[in-house]
Amino acid sequence: MFQQVAILGPGLLGASLAMALKARGLSGRVVAWSRRAETRAKCRTRPWCDAVEESAQQAVAGSDLVVLCTPVATIAPLVGELAGHVEPGALVTDVGSTKSLICRQARSLLSGRGGAFIGSHPMAGSELAGMEHAREDLFAGAPCFVTPVEDDPDHEVARLIRFWEALDMTVETLSPERHDEVVAHISHLPHFIASSLCGYLASRDPRWAHFAGPGLRDSTRIASGDPGLWRQIFSQNRDELLRALDGFEDELHALKAALLNDESTGVAALLERGKQYRDRLRTE
Amino acid sequence: MFQQVAILGPGLLGASLAMALKARGLSGRVVAWSRRAETRAKCRTRPWCDAVEESAQQAVAGSDLVVLCTPVATIAPLVGELAGHVEPGALVTDVGSTKSLICRQARSLLSGRGGAFIGSHPMAGSELAGMEHAREDLFAGAPCFVTPVEDDPDHEVARLIRFWEALDMTVETLSPERHDEVVAHISHLPHFIASSLCGYLASRDPRWAHFAGPGLRDSTRIASGDPGLWRQIFSQNRDELLRALDGFEDELHALKAALLNDESTGVAALLERGKQYRDRLRTE
């Protein structure tokens, strides 16, 4: 599918992607680069890595697909470092959890300097970060957003969609702005809430943690995510996240008011609405 | 350990308990009763059930342990129906998720009329209710609260603790009031939040559910719980739950304020506090 794919930032997502590319024969070569010398040294020992370059500019030389897998705040600046080095006709994408800011900045930085940037967001991952937790099947069966803007050439968009589909992902095409609204609700808000719940429980008696059942464990798992990465995600998607948070608080207050006034029918009706949503989630 | 155990209300918890009793040889006989004729008929076909009685009073006759496994709002009223029928010296307990109201009412209803009531709350269960989902190992390895009050005889409390320990549970002894404070935080609050989140998402574009990753699925699983049962739990533990909710909202607002003011260090510090709590939960 591609002759050479450059993976910039081989952490959980980048290394899993490289493994999947190799397993499925989707790229002739896989070239990796990381800003950290330690990570570059680790890459050299991995079977999914054909070459490790000392600079991002060297990694993109000869690559017809470049995938940026670094933390969201560093994606656009890294695209800036690549401008002028990307091969003409190469496709540049990323795997970041936010899209509006990244797509706007990256497109403008690459514009007219070789290569086209179109954002991606594979909805795969884990609260466990790092190459050590990478696995070949991380992407298979998961949804993936592709976020073109109006003047992106259709054939480039189609090529990017085919790429993620070849990893068994279900691709949804949305504008970067609409993407950020959607993930603010289904990903960033749940994370924000789980972190707040854990933060609050941390302020109470820590021994209570001993008695927690699977409910608390499952409902807070995502709060184990890397604070440094999530701080960036929240900041880049701040406005949409704050809007989603307001909506959540309205619902929370409606349920609280029903409980406060001992309106048992009202409480049950609100719980039922939540249950119906969740039950549908299970089977989809 | 017991000659005959009466299981009143053989749903997920009651039927799992009966299965575990049989598998571990902890009771000579297991007698079941349900208010619903349909459930009684089902019990007659199950290997864990030695007899099914038409009334709760008949089920407790000859039983030296009585376990009430019905929804929390019906536990104390059912104890009222049993008063005068429980064998002298028999132990009466329950598996309800709230304890203050139940223990106060049940003790006063049984007082001086044969049998002693001491509350229990095994922290086992699932969002899937009903006998069909029962399993022999539901309790094994999970925590269990036993909630005696001051004038309960030590040997009766010790007997109840030994019973749950024989099911491989780790028993914690707390007052009913303290129990309700603890579970308001580690069980009822997470449920309240998950239901509110799902209720809010239900009010937005329902197609977004298609794109949800494992994070949203895990963090909202408990919202699939039975609204009728949870309405009762919230109502019985209303004051503690509302207090816990206030504390959670304070934490939510602190994180929101840090994000609103773009204090990235503050956001990261709050996320880090949540992560540390959650990481400890994983290994305990």
Protein architecture, described:
2 copies of one chain form a homodimer. Chain A is α/β, with parallel strands linked by helices and 284 residues long. Helix content of chain A is 52%, strand content 14%. Chain A has 11 helices and 9 strands. Chain A has helices at 12-24, 37-43, 56-60, 72-82, 100-110, 154-165, 176-203, 214-220, 227-236, 238-260, 264-283; strands at 2-8, 27-33, 51-52, 65-68, 91-94, 116-117, 119-122, 143-147, 170-173. In chain A, the strands form 2 sheets. A 6-stranded parallel sheet of chain A has the order 3-2-1-4-5-6, with helices on both faces. In chain A, strands 7-8-9 form a 3-stranded mixed sheet, covered by helices on one side. In chain A, β1, α1 (12-24) and β2 (27-33) form a beta-alpha-beta unit. The longest helix of chain A is centred in the C-terminal third of the chain and has 28 residues, at 176-203. The radius of gyration of chain A is 21 Å and the shape is globular. The model of chain A has no long low-confidence stretch (mean pLDDT 95). Chains A and B meet through α7, α8, α9, α10 and α11 of A and α7, α8, α9, α10 and α11 of B.
Task: Give me the oligomer status.
Answer: homodimer
Strand content of chain A: 5-15%
Question: Number of DSSP helices of chain A?
Answer: 11
Number of strands of chain A: 9
What is the helical fraction of chain A, as a range of percent? 40-55%
Write down the Rg of chain A. 21 Å
Largest interface: A-B, 88 and 88 residues
Which strands sit side by side, in order, in the main sheet of chain A? 3-2-1-4-5-6
Which ranges of chain A are low-confidence, i.e. pLDDT below 50, for 5 or more consecutive residues? Answer: none
Return the average pLDDT of chain A rounded to an integer: 95
Class by helix and strand content of chain A?
Answer: alpha/beta
Coarse morphology of chain A: globular
Main sheet makeup of chain A = 6 strands, parallel
Termini Cα gap of chain A: 30 Å
The SSE order of chain A reads: EHEHEHEHEHEEEHEHHHHH
